[in-house]
């Protein structure tokens, strides 16, 4: 009976051992010895493990491996990098696009505003120039009308000055007024504004022939006969003064205004010309009368006056405005330098003026003209944008003289504050970028650290325990089974808890199988068991028959 039970257990243990051998890929030879105590706490030593010949597979360990913590770190690093960098990139891109949108929108609004301001500025300058031209044209035509109606005798200087005084009262301070005669006589009157705001007239007379009556002329005939020009100061109320000053003779008939006016009874404008060697430049409205024409009436517009009017409309610090004729001669500008060329006779063109913005715009217009000498041929209105300036071009047509008005400003005058805002936004974005990067790196490190900590507790440590016990089991060391706390300690992770339970059951069964096999070997040695698995002189066929018999009997 005892033999039957023992044989049955031996067969089962042997089968389990063979199955274990096939599963793990190794076999034990017949010379294996075991050490064991009652608690199974000591290791089973002196075991010899060889590669399984039955499986035909040679178990070879990798020469180079990496710990699982490195794999987990790499995985966590990649995931955390994507999780942190993607929102960071989107955030920075959004901030950058938002800044650019704000700045570009501001620049677009400023550009539109600049264009409108310059257009209004150009219209106002044209209106101002047109007002000056219209005033001179009106006064010239009115003077001609009064003379032609015989209501004004040019030889009666008292009545003549009363007429100019009344003209000043009705129309405001007069420009330079000239009356020239073909015999060389000349009458000139000028309105000067005093410090107290009142106006005074300066009378200039060159007499080739003594007038019949002149109560305000000096009684000394000798001074009149010597063709001396006299200056009489007349105040705003027309009360004569006794002051008398002499100056150089004035050659009337050779002056440009007289030369042009004596050829036509129609009102015309002269081309710009230097009024004197002092640098005064301007152009004159002229009209001849009498039949045949022997008298010319003229009113000057000095470029200095025109420039003063233009400068009143300079709206930004570096804005520039200038007016020129169709020949390209600058007749008024915000430029404070001389408009007369170095020869003292010709006027400068915009591309030769010292002001950098006027010169740059003039060069661009000259290129646009492409050899056309008429600077007013580019159309009534155009807008130009160079590298760093906006400017506009417009044409004012009047009688026989066209005027071109160009006004503009550097872009910085309109978008300078926006550029400063853009720089401030860029600096803020750069500083915030560094802060965001620092926060992102900190968050990244925290995420990786926490992830490694959790993985280490719930994954790596349980695997280490299983790996350690499995490694001991391959050397038939089952001392780990003695530590009941370690065996009963289970992972909170469901899959690892199941793995640990199955693993310890497998190890326990393996140890039990070895124990049973050890018992069989001991009984055989002591002669208590006739079942021998290591009989040396038994042939292979006999061993197989015996095993078949045992299997058939106790199976």
Question: Which key terms come to mind for this protein?
Answer:
transmembrane helix; five-stranded antiparallel beta sheet; 555 residues; 11 helices; 16% strand; alpha+beta; 49% helix; membrane; 16 strands
Q: How many strands in all? A: 16
Oligomeric form: single chain
| Morphology call | rod-shaped
Structural class: alpha+beta
The amount of beta strand, in percent, is 15-25%
What is the residue-averaged pLDDT?
70
Order of helices and strands: HEEHHEEEHEEHEEEEHEEHEEEHHHH
The total of helices stands at: 11
Task: Evaluate the radius of gyration.
Answer: 59 Å
Helix content: 40-55%
Q: Uncertain regions: pLDDT < 50 for 5+ in a row?
A: 1-14, 16-55, 218-249, 529-538
What is the distance, rounded to the nearest whole angstrom, between the alpha carbons of the first and last residues?
A: 15 Å
Describe the structure.
The protein is an alpha+beta fold and 555 residues long. The protein has helices at residues 2-24, 68-148, 157-171, 221-225, 256-261, 303-311, 356-369, 411-474, 484-488, 494-526, 540-554; strands at residues 26-27, 50-51, 177-181, 186-193, 199-206, 229-234, 245-247, 268-269, 273-274, 281-289, 295-302, 320-325, 330-333, 381-385, 389-398, 401-410. Strands 3, 4, 5, 6, 7, 8, 9, 10 and 11 form a nine-stranded antiparallel sheet that branches. A five-stranded antiparallel sheet has the order 13-12-16-15-14, with helices on both faces. It has a two-stranded antiparallel sheet with strand order 1-2. Helix 1 (2-24) packs across helix 10, helix 2 (68-148) runs antiparallel to helix 8 and helix 8 packs parallel to helix 10 (494-526). The longest helix has 81 residues, at 68-148. The protein starts with a helix and ends with a helix.
């Amino acid at each position: 009976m005892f033999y039957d039970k023992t044989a049955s257990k031996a067969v089962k243990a042997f089968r389990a051992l063979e199955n274990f051998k096939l599963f793990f890929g190794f076999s034990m030879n017949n010379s294996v010895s075991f050490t064991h105590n009652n608690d199974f706490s000591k290791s089973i030593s002196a075991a010899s493990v060889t590669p399984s010949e039955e499986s035909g597979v040679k178990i070879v360990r990798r020469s180079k491996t990496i710990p699982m913590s490195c794999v987990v770190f790499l995985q966590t690093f990649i995931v955390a990098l994507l999780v942190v960098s993607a929102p960071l990139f989107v955030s920075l891109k959004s901030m950058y696009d938002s800044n650019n949108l704000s700045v570009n929108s501001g620049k677009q609004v400023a550009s539109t505003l600049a264009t409108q301001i310059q257009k209004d500025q150009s219209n106002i300058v044209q209106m101002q120039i047109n007002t000056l031209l219209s005033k001179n044209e009106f006064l010239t035509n009115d003077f001609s009308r009064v003379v032609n109606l015989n209501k004004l005798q040019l030889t009666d200087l008292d009545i003549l000055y009363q007429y100019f005084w009344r003209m000043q009262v009705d129309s405001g301070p007069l420009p330079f007024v000239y009356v020239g005669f073909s015999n060389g006589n000349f009458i000139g009157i000028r309105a000067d504004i005093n410090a107290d705001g009142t106006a005074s007239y300066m009378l200039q007379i060159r007499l080739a022939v003594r007038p019949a009556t002149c109560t305000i002329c000096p009684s000394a005939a000798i001074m009149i006969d010597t063709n001396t020009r006299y200056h009489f100061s007349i105040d705003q109320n027309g009360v004569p003064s006794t002051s008398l000053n002499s100056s150089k003779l004035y050659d009337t008939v050779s002056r440009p205004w007289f030369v042009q006016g004596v050829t036509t009874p129609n009102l015309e404008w002269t081309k710009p010309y230097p009024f004197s060697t002092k640098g005064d430049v301007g152009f004159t409205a002229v009209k001849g009368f009498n039949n045949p024409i022997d008298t010319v009436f003229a009113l000057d517009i000095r470029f200095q006056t025109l420039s003063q009017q233009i400068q009143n409309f300079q709206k930004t610090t570096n804005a520039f405005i200038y007016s020129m004729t169709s020949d390209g001669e600058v007749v008024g500008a915000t430029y404070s330098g001389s408009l007369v060329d170095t020869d003292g006779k010709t006027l400068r063109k915009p591309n030769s003026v010292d002001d950098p913005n006027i010169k740059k715009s003039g060069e661009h217009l000259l290129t646009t003209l492409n050899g056309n000498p008429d600077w007013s041929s580019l159309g009534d209105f155009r807008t130009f944008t160079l590298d760093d300036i906006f400017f506009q071009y417009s044409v004012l047509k009047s009688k026989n003289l066209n005027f071109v008005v160009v006004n503009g400003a550097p872009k910085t005058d309109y978008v300078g504050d926006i550029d400063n805002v853009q720089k401030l936004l860029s600096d803020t974005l750069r500083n915030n970028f560094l802060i965001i990067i620092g926060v992102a790196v900190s968050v990244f490190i925290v995420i990786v650290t926490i992830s490694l900590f959790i993985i280490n507790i719930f994954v790596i440590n349980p695997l280490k325990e299983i790996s350690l016990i499995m490694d001991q089991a391959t050397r038939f060391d089952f001392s780990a089974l003695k530590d009941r706390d370690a065996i009963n300690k289970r992972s909170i992770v469901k899959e690892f808890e199941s793995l640990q339970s199955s693993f310890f059951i497998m190890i326990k069964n393996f140890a039990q199988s070895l124990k049973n096999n050890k018992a069989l070997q001991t009984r055989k040695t002591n002669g208590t068991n006739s079942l021998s698995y290591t009989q040396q002189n038994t042939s292979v066929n006999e061993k197989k028959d015996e095993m078949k018999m045992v299997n058939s009997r106790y199976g």
